[in-house]
Amino acid sequence: MARRAPKKQARRNGGGGIPGWIWLLIGLLVGALVVAVMFLRGQWDLPDGTLPTPNPEARAPAATEEEPVAQKPAAEPRKPKYEFFDVLRDKEFVIPDAELNAQAQAEANRPADAAVPANADAVRYLIQAGAFRSSADAEALKARIALTGEVARVESAEIAGGTIYRVRLGPYPNAGSLAQAKQALGSHGIDAVAIRAQ
């Protein structure tokens, strides 16, 4: 005859403990109680000043006949990408595009055997493609210019107590070659300034 197992062996996991679903229910109730307390205390409200509060009593000012309506100021011209004029030396002058094109046209129309002006040797034509506070930015522009087929260099200058890194091309022998190089840079999206140095 087979022996029956005693009742102690039939009970497992401590037998008289609290079932798991009751622990789950207790946890949910405690969580809901914490949320309710925080909500009632205002812990979840947004801090003051994060959102604007509208003023329902605010009114737009009424325009009167005596007071002229302010006109919009004319749109300011777009500032250049680089501040060239702050970093040029004393004897360097920016050549406006119209003047550069006129000089290049005059050189092209001049006969080959015409006399070269006496001060032509003293004039140097340069292109400045950028001026930066960081040498890394200047080197990046120099590399971008190299992809266009032009050769640029980075020159450093002490200005207003800081170092400026200028990306320059040239010198060019005349205004015609300067205009061609400037136009080549412009066709690749690189803004540059023509400079006459003496």
How many beta-strand runs?
5
Runs with pLDDT <50, length 5+? Answer: 79-89
Structural class: alpha+beta
Shape, principal axes of CA atoms: elongated
Short description:
The chain is an alpha+beta fold and 198 residues long. The protein is built from 5 helices and 5 strands; from the N terminus they run H-H-E-H-E-H-E-E-H-E. Helices cover 32% and strands 18% of the residues.
Describe this structure in words.
GO terms for molecular function: peptidoglycan binding. Keywords: Membrane, Transmembrane, Transmembrane helix. InterPro entries: Cell_div_SPOR-domain, SPOR-like_dom, SPOR-like_sf. With 198 residues, this protein is of the alpha+beta class. The chain has a domain of 95 residues: 2-Layer Sandwich (Alpha-Beta Plaits), CATH 3.30.70. 32% of the residues lie in helices and 18% in strands. The protein contains 5 helices and 5 strands; from the N terminus they run H-H-E-H-E-H-E-E-H-E. It has a 5-stranded antiparallel β-sheet with strand order 1-5-2-4-3. Helix 3 packs across helix 5. The protein is elongated, with a radius of gyration of 39 Å. The termini are far apart. 15% of the residues are buried. About 6% of the residues have low confidence.
Please name the defining characteristics of this protein.
198 residues; five-stranded antiparallel sheet; 5 helices
Please write out the topology:
Elements: H1 7-10, H2 20-41, E1 92-95, H3 97-109, E2 124-132, H4 135-146, E3 153-159, E4 162-172, H5 175-187, E5 193-197
Antiparallel strand pairs: 1-5, 2-4, 2-5, 3-4
Helix pairs in contact: 3-5
